[in-house]
Specification:
This protein has 378 residues and is α/β, with parallel strands linked by helices. The protein folds into two domains: 130 residues, no CATH class; 208 residues, von Willebrand factor, type A domain (Rossmann fold). It contains eight helices and 14 strands. Strands 6-5-4-7-8-9 form a six-stranded mixed beta sheet, with helices on both faces. Strands 1-2-14-11 form a four-stranded antiparallel beta sheet, with no helix packed on it. Helix 6 links the parallel strand 8 and strand 9. Helix 2 packs antiparallel against helix 3 and helix 4 runs parallel beside helix 5. The protein is elongated.
Length: 378
């Protein structure tokens, strides 16, 4: 896929003691513009910059002024270093936990509710199709995604264990090896699976964006009394699952949803609760592959480290191609703009057409401008 190429640029958000001095300095600065000699990346780790500063992958490219700020200026709050906060966005690996339904209905056909007959060469079984699609994506997976695997159920009923494959760099092969050993069967404790995923993701200390990819073929049915987490087999548990997915989003973990087979039904409420708006229906191998590739492409291509938490997280601008008109809005609905991926507010994800233009190469350079509290960004 086309990767966003970055350029480190330095601009001055000139914060001065008086309005007259501020006007004079801003005129001399000319507002946001490329550094002389700047240009797009030409290779791994490359960064066009007249200063010769070349960040390594994953390192911050933020450049900070030495504005000493006197009197009651915004720069006093951070020791006088709020004058320049401009950097290229750094691609951020995504931590993606695959929360995978392995219940008994996955032995049915992708395009019907019928069981695939033994030895059939025409029936596309849900589990076999799911494994095949995942193998293709995992084989092609790069260092942009750190995979993990959590199966539900883990006990033939309503239990869900900690992830079978923990999230780690280079773990795609381990996920493939594990799912090759699985035989579908048992109930569908989706709510418990999401709760277990959140508990696990909260233990990770890296700064990567963290996401859940829920692939399921049926309604959660562990809502009765007596099971793990209060969910015994047999009773519908849809609303509690929606609530669990919403709780995951509040904790900073978006949930992408793939509905496998014709019985998955309308899972839009799951996707909306997870901050991803729409679920991906997959009633054929081609649909499944497209859904997996779209999700992986989104988290791998459109997630970026800011290098630091902004002085004022509500006062930043993302700009593409050095063009003032290409500044996406912050969008907490995650449909058409950008938003922070976690409470730490040092990583962002870009959504909708803005993300599409990153992955298709329309946007070739980008930068983030961070302003001081109460100081407008030109």
């Amino acid at each position: 896929m086309t990767r966003l190429q970055m350029i480190s640029r330095t601009h001055r958000l000139c914060l001065c003691g008086t309005a007259a001095l501020a006007s004079a300095v801003l005129l001399s600065c000319g507002g946001p513009k490329p550094i002389e000699g700047g240009g797009p990346l030409t290779g791994a780790g490359g960064n066009g910059s007249s200063s010769g500063y070349i960040p390594t992958p994953g390192a911050s490219s933020t450049k900070t002024s030495t504005n000493t700020g006197t009197g009651s200026t915004p720069s006093e709050a951070d020791g006088g270093n709020c004058g320049i906060k401009t950097s290229g966005l750094v691609p951020q690996p995504a931590d993606l936990l695959l929360v995978l339904d392995k219940t008994g209905s996955l032995t049915r056909a992708m395009d019907s509710a019928n069981e695939c007959a033994a030895g059939s060469t025409t029936c596309q079984q849900r589990w076999a199709t799911l494994v095949s699609g995942l193998n293709a994506v995992l084989t092609a997976s790069s260092s942009d995604v750190n995979w993990g695997l959590e199966l539900f159920n883990s006990d033939g009923s309503c239990g869900v264990a900690a992830p079978e494959v923990p999230i780690a760099p280079g773990s795609a092969a381990a996920v493939q090896a594990y799912i090759a050993t699985v035989t579908p069967g048992g109930s569908t404790p989706t709510r418990v699976a999401i709760d277990t995923a959140v508990t696990y993701l909260k233990t990770l200390t890296d700064t990567n964006g963290k996401y859940i990819l829920l692939a399921t073929d049926g309604e959660p049915n562990c809502g009765g009394a007596g099971g793990r987490g209060g969910g015994g087999a047999g009773a519908s548990d849809v609303q509690n699952t929606v609530t669990a997915i919403g709780t995951a989003l509040t904790a900073g973990f978006q949930t992408f949803v793939i509905g496998v087979g014709v019985e998955a039904g309308n899972l839009t409420n799951f996707a909306v609760a997870g901050g991803t708006t729409n679920y991906y229906p997959a009633t054929s191998p081609d649909q499944l592959s497209a859904a997996l590739n779209a999700i992986v492409g989104t988290v791998a291509s459109c997630t970026f480290a800011l290098g630091k938490t902004p002085p004022d997280p509500t006062n930043i601008v993302i700009e593409f191609n050095g063009d003032h008109s290409l500044r996406p809005p912050r969008d907490t609905t995650h449909t058409n703009g950008w938003d922070y991926t976690s409470p730490s507010q040092n990583t962002i994800q870009v959504y909708g057409p803005w993300c599409d233009n990153i992955t298709n190469g329309t946007y070739t350079t980008t930068q983030v401008l961070m302003g001081c509290p109460g100081q407008p960004i030109p």
